[in-house]
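pasting for ref
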Amino acid sequence: MPAPIPALFDAHQDSVLSLAGTAYAAAQLQAWFEGRSPAIYEPELSEGRIWLAERAGRVLGFVGIEPL
């Protein structure tokens, strides 16, 4: 698994918990990543459908795209 994938998973979880915390119930937030692992990002990263913003090996942000 490439090095940024676990960091991407952590950044995604942090984003959901901090930005969606007031819009969803605690149970919904807990269920958001239930059964998921960092491996869910491997296909999208390898196909160029997720772009990362990194600095010194730290994931600062990401965006997912759908090709037209």
